[in-house]
Amino acid sequence: MEPVKVLMTAYVPKPGSLTTAENDANATPGIATDYGAFSKGTKILIPGKGIFSVDDTGAIPRRDWRLRHIRHIDLRIPPRYHFGTNPADAFRAAIDEANSIGIGWVQVYVIKPPVSRGHNS
After folding, report:
1. Mean pLDDT across the stretch 17-41?
2. DSSP label at 5?
3. Which tens digits make up the pLDDT trace of 102-111?
4. Domain range spanning residue 7?
């Protein structure tokens, strides 16, 4: 595992919004960043949170990488809907979790960079 210091934020996908993840508010947890900072498919361990895949990009993480060379990851926290759970409560809980992360520098660990596929010319 490679330790890397990143600027971390978090967000909750809005119901009805378009995301590149599975489905709106039912999206799986994942990381948005600039693919120049971390390649798509990279697995990252965030201590105390778990292992997540880089599977999306975000405007602010892209700007931070391209203009300031800052590795910024934006953790996607979808609402967790369960049978009998009020959707508004699930959405509020996800927002509370994202707000508790705030914005800050965090040491993460790159577990599995994706395999690069060479091209034969």
Report:
1. 75
2. E
3. 999 999 999 9
4. 2-112
pLDDT confidence band for 114 (50 / 70 / 90)? low
Sorted by sequence, the CB contacts under 8 Å of residue 64 that are 6+ apart come out as: 7, 34, 70, 71, 72
CATH number of domain containing 85: 2.40.40
pLDDT in tens, 42-88: 999 999 999 999 999 999 999 999 999 999 999 999 887 666 778 88
Q: Which two tokens stand for residue 17?
A: 């919004």
Residue 102 maps to a domain = yes
Quick one: tokens of 61? 């993480």
| Residues 45 and 1 sit within 8 Å (Cβ to Cβ) | yes
Q: What total number of domains does the chain contain?
A: 1
Which ranges of the chain does DSSP label H, i.e. alpha helix?
Answer: 59-68, 87-101
Q: Which residues in 57-78 are b (16+ Cβ under 10 Å) and which e?
A: bbeebbebbeeeebbbbbbbbb
Q: Structure tokens of 96?
A: 């509370």
